[in-house]
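SEQUENCE-TO-STRUCTURE ENTRY
===========================

Backbone structure tokens: a row of integers, each naming the local backbone shape at its residue.

Task: work out the structure tokens from the sequence, keeping to the layout shown below.
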Amino acid sequence: SVATTGSTGSVNPFSQVSSWFSGAETSSTASVSTVTNAASANTATATASPDTGSEIKLNAAMATSMASKLTPAELSIILRMREKLQRCETDANKWRLEKEDAVANLASVEAVKEFLVTRVRDTERVVQSQKEEMKKVQEKNLEDQEVIEFLDERVKELEKTSNEMKSKEAATKKESMDIVNKNEKKARVLSDMLRFEREQVAANEKEWKAAKKVLVKEVKSCRARIVALEAELEGCRQQNVQLKQGLMTLTQSSGSMSPGGGKNFRSNGRF
């Protein structure tokens, strides 16, 4: 009757028990086999976790007796509890493995933590040194900025001076070009004047040469006249000397004849 009642449901709990558990003694009839399998399931449920509790061994008679006292609904509940227990054991195994993995991960995390702490400290020292270097660099940048500002102002002044010089240079070039043009005009005028003067000098030189020739001739004639005059003067001097001598002779002769008359002559007339 138990077998027929269990077969009316959608799932036969006795067949499930017989399929899950083995080692129970079978009977000649199907009902006894099913009850025996159910008892074996209960026995397995009691002995499923050997590590957590003591073992309880059930024989075929005890399983049959227990199965005969249980209804199919109770057996179904027992089977569902068995399934839940198995799921719990599976979850427990999974969680144990996860715990072991977590412990291993924790150990690795600790090692990584120590490594990272060491690395962080090294990095902090490096960062501190870099901060100091950055501070020095910033101070250097400030100094360079001041120098750059000074140079910028100086460059602006030089650019201004350069622009002024360029404007002055342009004005000077213009003035120089004007002066060059004026000088070129003056040079052309002076060259014309020089050419005219040279022509004049050449003409005057010809006149001077002709006048020189005339002067040379006149000089020669004057020299000839001077020579002639000198000769004439020499003749006059000789004549004068002769006349003086004649007069002296006359005065001496007249003085001897009249001393008073000769004295008067010398006092009144002298050559």
Q: What stands out?
A: The two ends are 224 Å apart (CA to CA).
